[in-house]
């Protein structure tokens, strides 16, 4: 498997002439962007960029779909999402490319119901209101859960809400269930004591993907290489210092340390790698199913926007 530094070198090979000038890299992240949040908190990228006169601007988003919409309009250059947002973005015409991924983390997302809910199994979701972020990894988890339990998408009442609003609806029992990912899932476990109908285990790999605008990947290969060099350095800290990682995340996001210890424990690794043919094929299956359900406007070919090893 090529290393992250090799990935950076491949991106550098794409750079156009004259891109060595100083630049500000705009990076989007969300509360589930653990690698990026720790990178930001430790200041590693700023140090690497400063040597070439480059700077970084960080912007937080509620979820992946909002982040990729910002990438679409040029507000950010680079970011991290789960598996489903780039599929919706590609189908919508966003000019983006996959530039890396982290290993699967199926335990890091779940479908929750209140402890006293009459819903006991996934088949009981028929006719129920389920809160979720449209176009998020939770969207795919819910589709898979329905498919595996003999239900159609039209058998439920999806209520599309950003995570904070979805939690409020769940707590007030305005919805019957909630499909959600970490750290919101872990925070709800600690505070609300829900019953977990299912995690992504056996349903969704729940990959983390790193994405860039096509223009940025083509024109700013040197700056993108610096991002991946910093991520490579950060990986060692994340894998070897889980307690310190949880403390950094707690301070940055505002949830308690035990919540983030749970979040970190549900991730086998933070190592960023090239997309393999298998990972691209997994993404294609998600895209094909969303197209079949007419939840995206057209069929897409995922490999068309996967940056290949150089």
CATH topology descriptor of the largest domain? D-Maltodextrin-Binding Protein, domain 2
Pattern of helices and strands: HEHHEHEHEEEHEHEHEEHHHHH
Spatial order of the strands in the main sheet? 2-1-3-10-4
Name given to the CATH homologous superfamily of the largest domain: Periplasmic binding protein-like II
> How is the biggest beta sheet arranged?
5 strands, mixed
How many helices? The count is 13
Q: Estimate what percentage of residues fall within beta strands.
A: 15-25%
Radius of gyration: 19 Å
Global geometry:
globular
- E-strand count: 10
Structural class by helix and strand composition = alpha/beta
Function: Part of a binding-protein-dependent transport system for aliphatic sulfonates. Putative binding protein.
Domain Solute-binding protein family 3/N-terminal: 24-256
Signal peptide: 1-22
Keywords: Signal, Transport
Describe the structure.
GO terms for molecular function: ATPase-coupled transmembrane transporter activity. One of its GO terms (cellular component) is membrane. It comes from Andreprevotia lacus DSM 23236. It is found in: Periplasm. The chain has two domains: 200 residues, D-Maltodextrin-Binding Protein, domain 2, CATH 3.40.190; 94 residues, Periplasmic binding protein-like II (D-Maltodextrin-Binding Protein, domain 2). The protein has 13 helices and ten strands. Strands 2-1-3-10-4 form a five-stranded mixed sheet, sandwiched between helices. Strands 7-6-8-5-9 form a five-stranded mixed sheet, with helices on both faces. Helix 6 links the parallel strand 6 and strand 7. Helix 1 runs antiparallel to helix 10 and helix 2 packs across helix 11. The N terminus is likely disordered.
């Amino acid at each position: 498997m090529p290393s992250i530094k090799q990935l950076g070198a491949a991106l550098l090979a794409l750079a156009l002439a004259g891109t060595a000038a100083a630049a500000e890299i705009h990076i989007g992240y969300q509360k589930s962007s653990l690698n990026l949040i720790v990178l930001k908190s430790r200041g590693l990228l700023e140090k690497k960029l400063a040597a070439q006169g480059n700077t970084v601007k960080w912007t937080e988003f509620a979820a992946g779909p909002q982040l990729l919409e910002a990438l679409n309009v040029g507000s950010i250059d680079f970011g991290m999402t789960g598996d489903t947002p780039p599929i919706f973005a590609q189908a919508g015409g966003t000019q983006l490319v996959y530039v890396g991924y982290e290993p699967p983390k199926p335990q890091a997302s779940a479908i929750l119901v209140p402890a006293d809910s009459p819903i006991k199994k996934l088949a009981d979701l028929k006719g129920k209101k389920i809160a979720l972020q449209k176009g998020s990894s939770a969207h795919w988890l819910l589709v898979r859960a329905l498919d595996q339990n003999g239900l159609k998408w039209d058998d439920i009442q999806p209520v599309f809400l950003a995570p904070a609003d979805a939690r409020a609806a769940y707590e007030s029992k305005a919805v019957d269930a909630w499909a959600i990912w970490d750290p919101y899932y872990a925070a709800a476990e600690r505070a609300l004591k829900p019953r977990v109908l299912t995690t992504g285990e056996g349903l969704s790999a729940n990959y983390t993907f790193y994405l860039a605008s096509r223009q940025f990947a083509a024109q700013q290969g040197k700056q993108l290489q610096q991002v991946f060099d910093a991520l490579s350095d950060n990986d060692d800290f994340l894998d070897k210092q889980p307690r310190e990682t949880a403390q950094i995340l707690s301070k940055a996001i505002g949830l308690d340390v035990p919540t983030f210890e749970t979040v970190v424990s549900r991730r086998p690794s933070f190592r960023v790698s090239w997309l393999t043919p298998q990972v691209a094929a997994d993404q294609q299956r998600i895209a094909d199913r969303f197209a079949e359900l007419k939840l995206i406007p057209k069929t897409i070919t995922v490999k068309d926007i996967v940056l290949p090893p150089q």
